């Protein structure tokens, strides 16, 4: 990923936050079937190693676990909300016309070693961890323990666990930091007029970037 210095994000805690706030990642690998990508929900263990450990699972019928050698490096891509930036919002449009469109977004690339786990106890613990994570905040959260044991045992037979140890994190926050304050404030106002909720999220991120 090309990252201009002004957009570079190296703070591990910020990158971890982005992963946890956007847990549906894209696991990209090059295996015996060639290049492939799987969209999977991940949980992050921040405390195992310095850069963290990602956990997920795939259907046993997914050829991924048969096509990738565990010594291979893989990459997981996480992306936050994004929004188109219209030049019509910029004050310079009516001054000298020297404006152009852009795009605001945040992204993290996690380079990892991959390990496939075919162990019922690990998979059950992973189910519980991921459910507790994704159900948190719901008014009536569901728990794995509510399901019959034989049902969960059956599910375990149909999945393969994946554990990814992160070796490198690349972070990019393209939040218009290269623009002057007047442009950035105008962009925030422009984004707030949009109906897409992602635009409002990006407006909030740009405002936070100004404060920080």
Automatic annotation (TrEMBL):
InterPro entries: Split_barrel_FMN-bd (IPR012349), TR_PAI2-type (IPR007396). This is FMN-binding negative transcriptional regulator. It comes from Photorhabdus laumondii subsp. laumondii.
